[in-house]
Amino acid sequence: MEKWIHQIEEWIHQQPIEQLYVAFAVLVFTFVFFGLFRILRRSKSNTIVLVGLSGSGKTVLFYQLRDGSPHLGTVTSMEPNDGTFVLHSELEKKGKLNPVHLIDVPGHSRLRPKLDEFLPHAAGVIFVVDSLDFLPNCRAAAEYLYDVLTKAIIVKRRIPILILCNKADKVTAHSKEFIRKQLEKEIDKLRTSRSAISTADITSDYTLGVPGEAFSFSHCQNKVTVADASGLTGEISQVEQFIRELVRP
Amino acid sequence: MLEQLLIFTRGGLILWELGNALKGSPIDALIRSCLLEERSADAAFHYDAPAGCAAYTLKWAFDNDLGLVFVAVYQRILHLLYVDDLLAAARREFSRVYEPKRTSYDDFDETFRQLQKEAEARAEEMRRFKQAGRAPAAPGKKQVPGAASRGSGKQRSSGGGGSGKDESDGYPGKGRRSENGSSNGHENEIKPNSRAQNVVVHGKENGAPRVDAFDVSKLQKLRSKGAKKTDTGGGGCKAAKAEPKKIAKKNRVWDDSPSESRLDFTDPVADRGEGPEVVVADQGESMMDKEEIVSSDSEGEEDEEVGNEKPGTKKKGWFSSMLQSISGNAVLEKSDLRPALKALKDRLMTKNVAEEIAEKLCESVATSLEGKKLGSFTRVSSTVQTAMEEALLRILTPKRSIDILRDVHAAKEQGRPYVVVFVGVNGVGKSTNLAKVAYWLLQHKINVMLAACDTFRSGAVEQLRTHARRLQIPIFEKGYEKDPAIVANEAIQEAKRNNSDVVLVDTAGRMQDNEPLMRALSKLINLNNPDLVLFVGEALVGNDAVDQLTKFNQKLADLSMVPNARLIDGILLTKFDTIDDKVGAALSMVYVSGAPVMFVGCGQSYTDLKKLNIKSIVKTLLK
């Protein structure tokens, strides 16, 4: 081992000094180049994550965005749907289009831990809510939304969230204002019950909103907006707008 | 005839379907209660559409390489022999046509019709052949339980396990394997004559206490008994539920000793005023609220596994298997998985997981890995290990929220007390852990009240009284020899009056086979409709956990008068500190009942109550 080191040192000393300088400069330049590249690339992540309860319409929305139609229909997803593509509605546009990396995470409660794998790379989160069957699932949806809003990654990187009230084409679907108010109320209640517990129960790392005031989405540090859409009929213009804002700054 | 055949991706998109529209949503139910619950090795899944309009049986096949699922749906009263055959053939053909980005496969219709005709023809031939071969033995097979709907013609090891249990139920104990074909043949013969007979056979199947306990479909069926009870469940071997007249409760006499005249030795008001017991001011934070420090030791691959694998794969040769694992082109076959799975199963069993559960889990993992291509640089054992870890994580992750405090607040808003009933067999620690839960709730400023509905065991009421005095909370008691259901009812009303937020109801321990006691328990639960039925089980129990939970759930469902029976909602695991790393009881209990573990009791003082740390359990199980 030491003999080798000695030999290498001798060999280095034998080389002309300019070559050594050049070699060193090349190395430094490569490192700097890669470093810059990684830093620049990180801020331009183009991943959007679709989350929501089981049955809210995420997979339909995924295929609507990708192909323009949900094909023959969907069933409960067992695995995430992952795709990088140009949005279907933008295919007709000319010019260089930025593909979007869209991930549809299953909503079934047993598969919740999968969400943590995808959030670190997300540039934006779309939280899909079933506006037709909203009231029976209001508590579960609020709990899921609370969990998402208080994850460390979301808070630190201020990842914008779009709350999408899906199935808005149905007659008995609730309006997005109603859903927003209900969610805010439920999260307010969750805040008090969760913060009354000490450290072990808080699976999330941060508390939401301003203590003492009723919770409202404007209290969040990251941008939270509400929109409605219909995955089945294809009225997803607000979703696409959200995506375009994020992916092509 | 098949109602429908569906092909969909694991991500949820339907690629191809053929058939009529189905009532209800059987596919979603299949995914949620079977495939995601790691019961994918089951033979079939039964689904009852809500409002009782249709009953289907579903069978499925996986193509793990392409990530596809093939599901066939047909009416439950039919016994189609060719479904498995057809699924396998459809899988073969479709994998040829499949392309990742393609989403419409209309040309597959023709291929499928062809396959269907072929499969039907093959089944007809087999049936005729079997009929000819077994005609002399045909009579007397009518008593065989309806094995047809469970894996017609399939030879599965789970069938062997089930037949063992059937013997204990008093049915003609023949090996199930030989029975399948013959019973099918026979039943097909009698099909045109008597549909009713099939229904009765099913009735027997439903009625027989099935102890191959993974029929969660049955669990759900039990939930939605309703109309089903009258036709299928009625003709079963269930004991007569309705007692002709209400007999006054007599003392239980275990041997021939003369019964005591007076059993209630509680001194009346005299010892109420005593105060030598120390009032528990504050023993500190309950461990529920402490963050559990999980030591993150490295999860390195153990190389002993390679040793386990070597003897099994000798036939393939070490070099070629090494080459394949590097190049990553090997397609996993069942024979490859078997040694790794056997090693895993043994490891699980040394960790005190019930044998049947370990078996079922391994089969389910095998089903999900068969046909998959090995990634490069991975060994079979590591793939199996990852798959098993994911499966365990999935099972132990609760299906619904276990945030009790939130539920208590919700009940408070509605103006009623939150009622928790603790049930379990004798000596598992119900009363002790009830006090721990009360302590924890008290620490969160919730008004708790205890209800002493254990009116049988000597000293039970005093025990609770002592706890109540130490914790300074009200207790509702009526002494001994009273009907627990009525005591609980009055306790809840009392709680409403004195504004208690939570009522913790203690019941007597009872064995799961004891019919009158289970009936009394069922009456208590149905009369009072608690918010949470907590099954208390000890972590030391081994294979009996499966039996306990199944029988409890079954009795609770059978003996209830209402269609939507209350089943066990949560599990409280006790005596966790006495097992070092043999944590398998948690897994067995969660798998069998589908209920999440809400608390873990890990000691005998008030603060020894904590939450289940799923990741550490999975790590311990697979270490």
Task: Report on this structure.
The complex is a heterodimer of chains A (249) and B (623). Chain A is α/β, with parallel strands linked by helices and 249 residues long. Chain A contains 8 helices and 6 strands. Chain A has helices at 2-14, 17-43, 58-67, 115-118, 138-149, 152-157, 176-195, 237-247; strands at 47-52, 81-85, 100-104, 122-130, 161-166, 224-228. In chain A, strand 5 (161-166), helix 7 and strand 6 form a beta-alpha-beta unit. In chain A, helix 5 (138-149) crosses helix 7 (176-195). Chain B folds into 3 domains: 2-132, Beta-Lactamase (2-Layer Sandwich), CATH 3.30.450; 299-396, Four Helix Bundle (Hemerythrin (Met), subunit A) (Up-down Bundle); 404-621, Rossmann fold, CATH 3.40.50.300. Chain B is built from 21 helices and 13 strands. Chain B has an 8-stranded mixed β-sheet, with helices on both faces. Chain B has a 5-stranded antiparallel β-sheet with strand order 2-1-5-4-3.
The H-and-E topology of chain A, N to C, reads as HHEHEEHEHHEHEH
Structural class of chain A: alpha/beta
> End-to-end distance of chain A, in Å?
54 Å
Please give the oligomerization state of what you see. heterodimer
Q: How would you state the average pLDDT of chain A, rounded?
A: 79
- CATH fold-level name of the largest domain in chain A: Rossmann fold
